[in-house]
Amino acid sequence: MVLDALHSLANAARKTEPTWRYGFNLVPTLRFRLRGPPLVGESARVVADLNRDGVAMTSASALLGWESCFDELSAEVTHLQDSLRDEIAAARSEAEAVEIGKKTFHLQYLGSTPALDPECIYARFALQPSILRIANAYFGMLTRMRYYNVWHNFPSQAQARESQLWHRDPEDLYILKVFVYLSDVDQGAGPFTYACGTHGKGSVRQDPAYNLEGRTKRSTDVQMAAVVSDDRWKTCMGPRGTIVFADTRGYHKGGLSRERDRVLYTCMFASQACQVKDLFVRPRKVSIPAATDAAFALAM
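User: That's the sequence. What structure does it adopt?
Assistant: Structure tokens below.
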């Protein structure tokens, strides 16, 4: 019982900014503060939007420019789609099925727990300096990369459920996810949608009413609108190459495709104190890049 009580106290402490930062994340915070000059240009704008709203939009061309490996990512995903043709067709045929706890409308190309390979395009895209600097600047510390994958959402007329409803992600005090659209995403393709100001740096402190799916809290549009009016919802539509940054500790939803497929690449950054240490299958030996920030991002 004593150990359980101590564990509960530690988890509660992780949820307060000073203890989370200067207790559980002191070293990465200090290392970040010893770095060079602040961000400028498009990167600075993205971080400013993140700080204010919890979500920011840009594009591969605007943010990454000639440094981008977006074309390589796109080509690799096209190759992957060819190899997964049968799995994609099978998943599409089940998109209308309703099974709580299973996202039948959604296929993860790399599986539910991807194998970590620092040299693959999925890792290298996340660790591009422009993206990693934004993650570190938003957290105010060096961050860990905890996940990457490619998601394919299929059109469905079933009632919204699972991540198609409003929810928060639980893993850390801040959680930064990056979504890179690999297909054009309009309203009919289930765009990512965010309730601005519901992140930890925001001003909204009230939680909406909710319904339970198993043990998970999910809120409808009506329930969310009672807390954050729909004119403060950011619906992230855009052409192929659009990049969305979002702190998913704030309320968000997405993937309610009604008319056409949505394909995107995603990666996730968290602090070293993240309660879910890894969403990868790690090989026994990991090739760590020489760059300090990238090396830290790949550590356990």
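The domain at 40-298 is CATH 2.60.120.620 (Jelly Rolls).
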